[in-house]
Amino acid sequence: MNLSQYTKEFSYNLKLAYPVILGMLGHTLIQIVDNIMVGKLGTTELAAVSLGNSMIFVAMSIGIGFSTALTPIVAEADAEKNPTKIRSVFHHGLFLCTILGLLLFLLIILAKPLMAELHQSDEVIALAKPYLDWVAFSLVPLIMYQGYKQFADGLSMTKYSMYAIVMANIVHVVINYCLIYGFWIFPKMGIIGAGLGTVISRIMMVVFMHIILSRQEQLKAYFKDFSFDEIKKSTVRKIINLGFPSAMQMLFEVVLFTAAIWLCGNIGKTSQAANQIALSLASMTFMFAMGLSITAMIRVSNQKGLMDFKNLVVVAKSIFLLAIIVEVIFALMFLFFYDVLPYLFLNMENTQELLDNQEVISIASKLLLVAAVFQISDGIQVVVLGALRGLQDVKIPMYITFVAYWVVGFPVSYYLGEYTDLKAVGVWIGLLAGLTVAALFLYIRFHYLTNRLINDNR
After folding, report:
1. What is the pLDDT of residue 185?
2. Among 81, 171, 430, 441, which has the highest number of CB atoms less than 10 A from its own CB?
3. Which long-range contacts (CB under 8 A, 24 or more apart) does 187-192 make?
4. Would the pTM of this model clear 0.85, i.e. be above it?
5. Dihedral (C-alpha) 15, 17, 23, 29: value to the nearest 10 degrees?
6. 409-422: per-residue pLDDT in tens?
C-alpha cells in the first residue's frame, strides 16, 4: 500500500480534530480549575470536591457516551444530502439528551448515601453532599449541550463546541473566584460556590450553542417549529440502540480507571498520589486521541452515507496512523522525562512531607514508563472505536470492551497490585493489558466488517 494515500488525509483529519481536542481539554480544565481554587481553602474541601467529582465523572461518561450516537447518523444523513433525516435526528437527540440529563441528576442525588460506604471522613461527606447537589444538576445542561455538540460534529462543524468551551472556562473562572472567596456583592460560599460556578457555566454553554448554531444560515431550518408530535418511537429506538452500547463502552473504561484509583488507595497514600499524577498526564494526552476518534466517527459515517467503502478504509486507516504517530510522540516524551514530570505536581520545599514526596516521585516515574506504552494501545482502541461507531457497529464492540477491561484488565491490575511487589506499577500493567486487548480485537472487528462491506458491494 502506498503510504501517501494515507498521509494526504492528515491535514483534513487535523482540521476536524483540533477543535474537538481543545474542547476536550476545556472539559478537563473546568475540573482542574475547581481543584486548584478549592485547594486553597484546605485539604478537607479538596477531598470533598474530589469525592463529589468521582461520582459525577461516572454519570458524565454515560451521558457523553450516549450522545455520541447522534454524530454518525447525522454525518451519514449529511453525506446522503437528507435534511429531513438530519432534522429528525437532531430533535430526537436533543429530546433524549434532556431526559437522560434529568435521569442522571436524579440518580446521583439518590446515590449520595453511597459516599458513606467509601470510607471517607464524616467531615468530607458533610461538605461533599451540598456540592454534589449543584454539580449533579449541572449534568442536565451538560448532556443537553452534548446534543447540540454531537449534531454540529456530525455536520463537520466542530469549531462551535470549541468556542462554547472556551467561553465556559472564562465564565467558570470568574464566577468561581467571586463565589468561592467572596468578592464585591457576592457572598463567600466556599465549595458550594464552585458547584454553582459549574452550573452557571454549563447553562451558558447550552445557551451559547443554541444561539450560535441557530444563526447559521444553513442550519436555520433545523431550529424551526419543534413539536413533540414529531417524536417517533422508531427514531427514539434507533438512537437508543446506538446510544446505550456507546454509553456502556465509555462506562466500562471510566470505571476501570476509577477502580485503579481505588486499588492504589488501598496500597497506600503515596501510591494513590503517584497514580493521580500519572493519570493526570495520561488523561491530557488521551484527549488528542479522543479528538481523532470523533474525526474517525464523522469521516467514516460520511463515507458510509456515500457507499464508498474502499475510501472509507483509506480514511479510517489514515486516522489510525495519525493517532499512532501522535501517541508515539507522547510516549517518547514520557520516556525521556519520566523522572522530571512528577515534580510539576509536588512542592519539594515542604520539608515535613519530603520523604513522602520523594516516594511519590519514585512511584510516579515508574508509572509513566508503563503509561508511555499504554498511550499507544489507548490511542488505537479509541480511534478504532470511533470508526466502528461511524459504521454504527456498537453492540459487539461493547462486549469486546467489557471483556478487555473487566475479564482481562481488572483481574491483572488487582492481582499484581494486591499480591505482588509491583504494587501501583502492577495496577498500571493491568490497565495496559486491558487497553491492548481492546485495541487488538476492535481492530480485528473493524477489518472484518469493512472487508465484508467491500465484498458485498462488488
Report:
1. 78
2. 430
3. 190/41, 190/45, 191/38, 191/41, 191/45, 191/48, 191/49, 191/127, 191/131, 192/130, 192/131, 192/134
4. yes
5. -110
6. 999 999 999 999 99
